[in-house]
Specification:
By secondary structure, this protein is α+β, with helices and mostly antiparallel strands. It folds into 2 domains: 148 residues, Serine Threonine Protein Phosphatase 5, Tetratricopeptide repeat (Alpha Horseshoe); 140 residues, Calycin beta-barrel core domain (Lipocalin), CATH 2.40.128. It contains 8 helices and 10 strands. The two termini are 44 Å apart.
Length: 298
């Protein structure tokens, strides 16, 4: 369902025009009745042979019906008519050429789809590509399409906190006190934290992400004791980030908290919290926990 939804998102920028000008074709296509869709889109095409979305949907319906030779000229015509989701048209052409065994043409069209921003990486599971799936060229293009789908993966700023990702045991003064799971989420755009104290007395979750507009990392924390904090990055070094939050404590007094993450080595991260009650003039040590990667704990 998610893959189908992705394809319709790609199409429906101009697909709304199809719903208006060729509703029977779109209804048939959505019902996977490709024979009826082909007939309906052909009828609409006869009324207006230059409408790019009808051209594309006719080619797409024929491709879905494995009528590859007949689909190709309609898909090419859609591109020439400046079909809005041109990457999708290139992709359908790639399916046709791959099915026909014209592999170099398939790679060319697939590469053009990637260059046009085609993001539906899941559609590469189409059976037409089975013959080339393990080839170096296909894998390379697949990575480009994956990057279109998940743009955070190609932004190095989104990777600066990756040293914290993993399964961890958390130690305080040498004593194991908690376990923490840190994972990347939302296509690499966020880092999620699940923190659990061993005796069950406290837990919390955070989401961290790089804010492109502010050019810094943000972190939102919610704890089981009702504590909530919004942190923003103030400093960064190689293998280290520092955050700050400004708020009030349980007594209503102003309290600033400075939080840092420092990678000691690939299997150790130290998290330190410093607290100020005078708006950053002086700082007192708070929590200082050592994260040891679970796989390497002996």
């Amino acid at each position: 369902m998610k893959t189908i939804y992705t394809i319709f998102i790609l199409m429906l920028g101009s697909g709304c025009l199809v719903a208006q000008s060729c509703p029977e074709g779109m209804d048939a296509f959505q019902a996977n009745d490709f024979d009826r869709a082909v007939r309906a889109f052909k009828a609409c095409h006869e009324k207006d042979n230059k409408e790019p979305t009808v051209l594309f949907m006719l080619g797409y319906s024929l491709t879905s019906n494995q009528a590859y030779d007949e689909a190709i000229p309609y898909l090419k015509a859609a591109i020439q008519a400046k079909y809005k989701s041109v990457g999708n048209a290139y992709f359908q052409l790639a399916r046709c050429y791959a099915a026909k065994g014209a592999l170099q043409n398939a790679f060319t069209q697939l590469s053009q789809a990637a260059d046009a921003g085609f993001p539906a990486v899941g559609r590469l599971d189409s059976s037409e590509f089975d013959v080339v799936r393990n080839s170096t060229e296909f894998i390379s293009i697949q990575e480009k399409i994956k990057a279109n789908a998940f743009p955070c993966l190609k932004n190095k700023e989104n990777a600066r906190f990756d040293f914290w990702v993993g399964e961890w045991e958390v130690y305080l003064k040498g004593k194991l006190i908690a376990k923490s799971t840190i994972r990347k989420a939302e296509g690499g755009c966020a880092i999620l934290e699940d923190y659990q104290v061993l005796n069950g007395s406290y837990s919390g979750h955070s989401i961290s992400y790089y804010n492109d507009r502010e050019k810094r990392w943000n972190q939102y924390w919610v704890g089981s004791a009702g504590d909530k904090s919004e942190y923003y990055e103030t400093e960064n070094y190689e293998d280290a980030l520092q955050f700050l939050t400004k708020g009030v404590d349980a007594k209503g007094d102003v309290a600033w908290t400075k939080m840092s993450y420092n990678q000691v080595d690939e299997n150790t991260v130290v998290q330190k919290l410093m607290v100020s009650k005078d708006e950053g003039v002086t700082w007192n040590a708070g929590f200082s926990g050592t994260y040891k990667r679970k796989k390497y704990v002996k």
